[in-house]
Amino acid sequence: MTAPKKLFIKTYGCQMNVYDSERMAEALGGQGYVETKSPDDADMILLNTCHIREKAAEKVYSELGRFKGLKAANPDLKIGVAGCVAQAEGEEIMRRQPLVDLVVGPQSYHRLPALEARARGGEKALDTDFPEDDKFETLKSRPRATRGPTAFLTVQEGCDKFCAFCVVPYTRGAEVSRPAERILSEARDLVERGVREISLLGQNVNAYHGAGADGDWSLARLIWALNGIDGLERIRFTTSHPNDMTDDLISAHGECEKLMPYLHLPVQSGSDRILKRMNRSHTAESYLRLIERIRAARPDILMSGDFIVGFPEETEADFQATLDLIEQVRYGYAYSFKYSTRPGTPAAERAQVDPEAASERLQRLQALITRHQQEIQQEMVGREVSVLYEKPGRLEGQMVGKSEYLHAVHVTDPQARVGDLVRVRIKNSATHSLAGERL
Ligand code: 5AD
Ligand code: SF4
After folding, report:
1. Does residue 238 have its Cβ closer than 6 Å to ligand 1?
2. Residue ranges per domain, the chain?
3. Which of 53-62, 67-76, 107-116, 249-258 has the weakest average pLDDT?
4. Domains 5-127 and 291-379 fall in the same CATH topology
5. Which of 28, 100, 347, 408 has its CA 20 to 30 A from that of 263?
6. 334 in contact with ligand 1, CB cutoff 6 A
7. How far away, in angstroms, is 70 Cα from ligand 1 center?
8. Tens digit of pLDDT for each residue in 370-399?
9. Order of strands across the sheet that contains 262-264
10. pLDDT digit string (tens) for 120-148?
11. In angstroms, what is the span from residue 85 Cα to ligand 1's centroid?
12. Domain at 146-260: CATH code
């Protein structure tokens, strides 16, 4: 038997890329690859890239440049670029960086083994198609490796919303939902392999409308079916769009016991004028009313969001409206970004905000979010939560896991094992985590 070849994958960007990287490793497992933690001894290096903001693509090119020495030392080393930069730039990547042997877009991962073989044969292999078949079905799993207690599961991909700033509709393509039964069987398989918490992924996850036995299923319907899987303890989903927050999904938050009280619901801006220019098709008011309804169903739900500051034409008054909205919602967590011009998107052509002003707004926004985040963490002190242990902590006898609300919680619990789901009383709040005592 020949020695296994070594595969190094570096993942950038969103959780969907994390999931895709696992699937790519499994697909190449069938070609005799095992994963390695360092690029130094790899036979194949894959960068699974993100194109959502400018810097991400530039990072990829500078990372590729660093592999020059490795390729000189090992001429058999193959270098591949996957993900959204691969989709957006295509052949341009090979032109700009001749070290690259293989380029594969996010919808073509099931063709990776064939592409790898072509690259091994000395060809430059490229595939950035949008094929019709379900790539996840064709990606054959390695036989039943055990898993950690949490897993991602992609249920929906792509987006038809065309927000004026965003490349996703171009890089990930049109919105496609996987059939419900495939998702359920993948979930059952994950649970048999040790998974207790599943996060359903999709760029527009609440637009899910996958085929079920009796017509299309909504995300809520899918969640209720997952709720019935023995051994699965927790369900999460991300990322949602305000316009697809249907009544059945809102009530699931109140009624479905395995659905966790955490919701990532990006609003991007609190100014109706900017929301309109962003093509978001909701207003600040309709978003706030939606949150009221969600909180009526599940009062303790922790909200998280995404914000863009310095979107073209944003004035100080527009920005102030965003701060006002944040004051009203009080997010437990938020991702905030300075607007980054994406060529080919409508907003790229418009009057850009002075970068200094945008940086200054970003700082003010982040300060407000941090204040709320710290207050909300402080309010957790004294409360009882459930914690799913994900790994040992840095201190002797310590475990780290997540609460229902996705707060990281440290617990001294020497007898415990990874995967235990325990009751904990919160004792302290630190900057990025909580500490508690097992009950
Ligand atoms: N500039 C800055 N942030 C962006 N996002 C998407 N596109 C851009 C862009 N061009 C942010 C949005 C989105 C998150 C995933 O990334 O807030 O919700
Ligand atoms: Fe991008 Fe999300 Fe808007 Fe779709 S809904 S275009 S993924 S920001």
Report:
1. no
2. 5-127, 146-260, 291-379, 384-438
3. 53-62
4. no
5. 347
6. no
7. 34
8. 999 999 999 999 999 999 999 999 999 999
9. 262-264, 302-309, 333-338
10. 999 999 999 887 776 777 665 555 677 89
11. 15
12. 3.30.750.210
The CATH class given to the 384-438 domain equals mainly beta
Residues with Cβ within 8 Å of residue 382, at least 6 apart in sequence = 425, 426
Given a contact cutoff of 8 angstroms between Cβ atoms, the answer to whether 56 and 50 are in contact is: yes
What count of other Cβ atoms lies within 10 Å of the Cβ of residue 31?
16
State pLDDT tens for residues 261-270: 999 999 999 9
Q: For residues 279 and 114, give the distance between their C-alpha atoms in angstroms, rounded to a whole number.
A: 40
Share of the chain above pLDDT 70, in %: 97
Residue 435 clears pLDDT 70, i.e. is over it: yes
**Partners of residue 237 on adjacent β-strands:** 200
- By the 8 A CB rule, do 164 and 278 touch? yes
282 CB less than 6 Å from ligand 2? no
CATH of 291-379, one of 3.30.1450.10, 3.30.750.200, 3.40.47.10, 3.40.50.300: 3.30.750.200
* Ligand 2 atom having least distance to the Cα of 162: 6
State if residue 196 touches ligand 1 by the CB under 6 angstroms criterion: no
Instruction: Please name the residue that has the structure tokens 């299923």.
Output: 217
Please answer whether residues 263 and 256 qualify as being in contact, where contact means their C-beta atoms are separated by less than 8 angstroms.
Answer: no
418: its two tokens: 């990874």
Question: Which residue type occupies 82?
Answer: A
CATH architecture of 5-127: 3-Layer(aba) Sandwich (3.40)
